[in-house]
Amino acid sequence: MALTRRSFVRTAGIGAGAALTANVWGRGRENSVWSAIEPDLQAVEKGVICIASNENPVGPGKKVLDSLRALLEGGARPGRYSNQGGELADAIASHFKVKTENVLLSEGSTEILRAATQVFTAKTKPLVGTIPTYEECAGYAELIGNPVRGVKLNSEFKIDLDAYLAASKGAGLVFYCNPNNPTATYVGAKATRDFLQKLNSASPETTVLVDEAYFDYVTDPDHETHVPVALENPRVIVARTFSKAYGMAGLRQGYAIAHKDTIAKMRSWVGSSGTGSLNVFGMAAATVAIAQDASFTTNERNRNKAVRDMVTKWFNDRGMKPTDCQANFMFVNIGTPAKAFREACRAKGVMVARDFPPFEKTHARISLGTMEEMQKAVQVFGEILAKKSTAAA
Amino acid sequence: MSVSRRGFLQGLRAGRPTHAAEFMAARGHEEYVALMQQGRQGRGMMRPQLPPGVEAIRISSNENPLGPGKAAIDAILGKFPEANRYPFNSTPLDADLEILIAKLNSAKRENVVLGVGSQELLKNTARVFMSATKHLVIPSPTYGDPAGFAQNLLKYTVKSAPVEAKTLRTDLNALLPLVSGAGLVYLCNPNNPTATINSAKEISEFVAAVKKASPTTAVLIDEAYSDYVTDPGFQTAIPVALATPGVIVARTFSKAYGMAGVRIGYAIGDAATIKKMSAYRMPYNVNTFGVAAAVASLKDPQHIKDESARNKAVRDFTIKSLADLGYTSTDSQTNFIFTDIGKTMTAAAFREACAQKGVMVGRDFPPLEKQWARISLGTMEEMQKATDVFRSVLKSTTTTSSGKE
Is A86's CB within 8 Å of B21's CB? Predict the structure, then answer.
């Protein structure tokens, strides 16, 4: 069974307690490995509020969709192999003011996470990740038989930088998800730069994958991309995706930015340049999306922040504390098991996320929909959580 | 030139083409990939550009020149409001596509796994069934992806046996002695680039013989071109795969379904075998527009019948045109032909000469590249123009190079 196979925080030791051994990296609805054994998967019916998967509820925007529509209505057909990754790579390079050789396109950022794990971990060079974090790197390392080290977050649910540094020495790859999924917390740019520098001195053969999937949602003023670090340091890779702020989760476009030598090592392990190609809808949409001016991401960040502030206040007012959220989802101590909460929400037409061990007994991850959706959602939360506290009392 | 003849994105902007884009527009994706795999990058691999004003006829990558049918395009346009949803939250779900594929093949969802094109599945089959001590067995030549991945990236061993000398059909009897201890046997049926088939009877007997000689060896049968087969001796090996652990059939929407740019394929096999494949499946691998287009296409089987008939007419015309010039082709059951031009020129010389006249044909297929050329089939109109070019290229070189005719 997939679950048992995934009990793989074997070499943990540092920071990982014995209670965390099983199912710590266990996956949820958003993972196909799990979905294959989840018999009751159903489409999101009309009227159901889906705030389970950290999607952008408003999509890629009119400009992007109009461009795609114009292509299709103008006779463009997806009958040819794409052949045009170069155009998107150029557009990304131009956006970041880097060279095309520093850009690697991928099928979502998932493929970057897998490629980095493939290339930089080994039997003697573990993958290091926080507990919890986005599981793809750890899951893939386990799949290819390479060890995984888990490191607990600190009491604020942030990356514990000292413990992380200690655990990362000698590692093949360190997965640094910032903001972290599912906890929504963020480590400031300066602290991250220091971490990267210290690790590079202490363990020069260790590569760090900085996953900036939720970058555009951060409002902390100490906020910078680590792309400049990655360009200089061959041991740092930045992963990005069009699935979050750009609202294109369905179109599967991601990329890495790194030193050209690092990109070259990963290139043959991704379909965009090895033996496959990316889908043309995603490439066309992403090419238009990234060429938009900064107001697109600014507007989306502001839209999300207004919703986040409303939901944060709602929970705080009721004595349920979310973590310091810097993403388009929240991690909230609801004081009751996530499973019961999730099932109760589902019965009332609201889909929230799966369990995130080791916090599944107390915390729920709630993605942020539109303001209207979240106003309805908090009403549902109120009914359910009030009932819980009554029952407990 | 209609937009579909060019790349999908070219309508977006008239930007400076990149090196890769420039190369691929000139030579086709498959060749680009082949060169990348050989590590041959850089300006040196650029081939002559088209003369100014000449529009390319791209018959190099076995693509469907018309793209998908109306049902698929309508389905894609209908999915715009769900661009933001992962394929496990969209309508239809990626799982719905698996269920539909299963239903159409009298199987269950657990017998099906989706891939980003069949490419992902071909690679994952190598990962699942091969190891440093469990080699790959392939006919030579065949589609190069599984062997390239196994050899270059996984560093595993590949053993091959030549296709039959006269017919260029995959020689199953020659493969059999190589299978002992193998991790995987890869068959492409119809075979690319030779365009020939092995019959259903031959395939099922071969599978049985492999299982007898080497019970743990898996067999992957790539049926990318099966929708184009007109020989009644061919049948899909899906029933064999469903009944035999360790046998997988891979399919794609890139060929007859006209969705090479959409990147959806699938594999079918018995539940335990597919479960192993699913473990390697990239999470949320298929795009939601593609899922919707694939579902719509599968519900429109008449379109595929029409596409196969259209292709056959073009195939018959092109094979006859070349035969009239004195060049024989193999018994093509696909949307490309493989033609013996060896008495006149090599594939490289043919390709260069055709490119000068705006016709892009397939790359070299060693070890047959001195003699055989692969030509994908475009529309009838394209192939009428292309065969004019073939006539002038093959004729002029015959007279000038040998001086005998």
Answer: yes
